[in-house]
Amino acid sequence: MDEGLHVKDKNTEDRERSAVSRRQLVKYAGLGATLVAASPLATGGPAWADDDERKQGKPGDSRNRAWRAGDHHVHSEYSGSFDTKTTPPKFTKGGDAVYPIVTNAIMAKNFGLSWAMCTDHGGPTHSKINLEQAYPDLLRSRILVPEVLQFWGMEFDAPALDHHTLMIPHHADEAQQLFELESRFAKLDPFPADPGRDTEAKMVEFLKAAKGMPRQPLVIAHHASRSATGLGVYGQDTPREFRNGNNAAPEIYVGFEGAPGHQAAPLNGGARGSYGSHPTYGGFDQMTARVGGLWDSLLGEGRRWWITATSDSHVHWTRGGSDFWPGEYSKTYVYARQDYADIMDGLRNGRIWVGTGDLITSLDVTLSNQGRDATTGETLTVNRRNRTDVDIEIRFRPLQGKNGNGERPEVRRVDLITGQVTGPNANPDADTNPTTKVVARFGPRDWRKQGDEYVIRHTLRNVESDLYARVRGTSTDEAEPLADGKESPWDDLWFYSNPVFVQLR
Known about the structure:
- This protein has a domain at 20-362: Alpha-Beta Barrel (TIM Barrel).
- The chain contains ten helices and 22 strands.
- The protein has helices spanning 12-37, 52-56, 101-110, 126-144, 174-185, 200-211, 239-248, 286-289, 294-300, 340-349; strands at residues 66-74, 81-83, 90-92, 115-118, 149-156, 164-168, 218-221, 253-259, 306-309, 330-336, 352-356, 360-369, 372-375, 379-382, 390-398, 413-420, 437-442, 448-450, 453-460, 467-474, 494-497, 500-504.
- β18 (448-450) and β19 (453-460) form a beta hairpin.
- The longest helix has 26 residues, at 12-37.
- The chain is globular, with a radius of gyration of 22 Å.
- InterPro entries: Pol/histidinol_Pase-like, TAT_signal.
- Residues 1-22, 41-70 are annotated as: Disordered.
- This is Phosphoesterase.
């Protein structure tokens, strides 16, 4: 076997045993896809958990919520290839990603995900492929793997930008809703090609159309700095475009991948995240990883702009690809009930934290003042006339078993990061927030055990301006995440919370 497959491998025997288990699951998943195609269930309608709001409470109702791990960027065999020498173009499955939809769902379940999303690439006339071929397979997969909520959507060919998640709400006409948006706005869908589709104005038009729909989708940018050529030297995705899109539809266009997929690439000699021109930092995109960078610049304007972590799974690294299975390495945790509507509500409103390598399995960040409190994605209102100290409690739960690499990683440090919220920036290209800093670093001596959790407490004294607080942690000794080389991703684990805001009144 290629030595590149064993970079910094600490437990070869566990790795090999795990790989055998994975191959068996893939085999059974393929068999399941064959069987279900001939099953009477395959021709029935979806087992709608629809109108989950009616069953378990409306969005905003916090009952029965828990941290639920998921992945909104997963590819199936419907990320294929197109022969444009014919009219219409001929589509061939498996040209880019190779696994059936149900295989991804089975593997997501195996690695502890409770929700996932198939996001296949577009292309000429792909909207019709999605509607007529991929969607029926998604319905079959929902029947076969009901434990995983499986959203419908795609990796949207965003006009003038790199790829984005386009997540469609779960309802009876979800397939038609995606068809409408893809056929009208995806830049690669027209045949022959239409250069007029590839403009920022078209992207804004798309977001406004999505905003006007009775059931609003979500849009999240993928691998935002993958085309960057240096630190702060951006490629397809720019600060100005993020601001313009968020201005047009703030409840639709809500964030970007903090940790992109393709994290297994170094195990086969590639660049982590497939960031070939400028690296990731601790597995995270430079826009997120740099304290006081673009993410902090957007948060400093008061934007509700969230980060996620995904697999971007195409081909598993043990088969020569660059990828982990959904949930094997990266997870996006959403505080929600196990229903489609509340998962989407959590994503829309920032009830999210992200992690790699199962370094921890829960993370709660709570800010409080004078009997009021707020947690991730929320806003704590503080009366200027009262005491303006803000108390912060950080709770995290370490992994009890072993992660996908057969290890039980340990948290070495937790950082508390704050930045001022000063309002809209006059410069739409701004990518820094000079007020953002690490205000406290905590090691094992600074937290105490409470049941299965560890608790850290800290107080921000004499808060004099609007601000936000966010938390990150790591298994490393790096004060700041270093630029990634070819080290094993399992040796470089991080988690990040989304922010809690503080508003003075």
